[in-house]
Amino acid sequence: MRIVLVGPPGAGKGTQAAFLARNLSIPHISTGDLFRANISRQTELGKLAKSYMDAGNLVPDEVTIAMAKDRMEQPDAKNGFLLDGFPRNVSQAEALDELLEAENMQLDAVLDLEVPEDEVVKRIAGRRICRNDSSHVFHVTYKQPAKDGVCDVCGGELYQRDDDSEETVRTRLEVYHTQTEPIIDYYKAQGLVVTISALGKVEDVTTRAMEALKRGEDGK
């Protein structure tokens, strides 16, 4: 299957992408991973992307598209892939259509993870990170430490990152609504969108997604 995963920040796209890719035996292609891999390997695309990032500028669509194209042409993606973070806007979606058409391929589904805006803010703004080890993550509601403000694992101080503040989260949501959400209507016109609720336990959302994708396939 060839799937695009969309949803607002805080919807759990990365977590669901990993589970779904494993269940479907297809690679999870994340734009974040693509950028890191290309920059780490110092590919021409990686050097180009880094030059924009170091200057504090957005990486142009054509660079992101070229990275995605290169990854989708790898042998492990021959029978499908799950795209996470790409396309990020309608122009990228159009470019992806052209790329797939040139390879005589097409998308099977666009999985839209739906989460109410207030829940997104609650999920992200409630996160607390350990200063000693950023992999130790807690939450004021969903994963409270035994002692307020103290990491259960190492005793380090828990803090809220600047980009997890409510103000920043709402700004990120506005960017999502303006830039990325329009691709849902773009793909709806092609009959590809499958929308599910991303509320509840991780495994429940995965089950919901797998069932919705199967229904979508059966309905074609």
Mean pLDDT, all residues: 93
Based on Cα principal axes, name the global outline: globular
Helix and strand succession? Answer: EHEHHHEHEHEEEHHEH
Q: Tell me the number of helical segments per DSSP (H or I, 4 or more residues long).
A: 9
Largest sheet: 5 strands, parallel
Gyration radius, rounded: 18 Å
Strands ordered across the widest β-sheet: 2-3-1-4-8
Q: How many individual β-strands?
A: 8
> Kindly, what is the distance between the CA atoms of the first and last residues, rounded to a whole number of angstroms?
13 Å
> Residue ranges: pLDDT <50 for 5 or more in a row?
none
Estimated helix fraction:
40-55%
Which structural class fits the helix and strand makeup? alpha/beta
Strand content: 5-15%
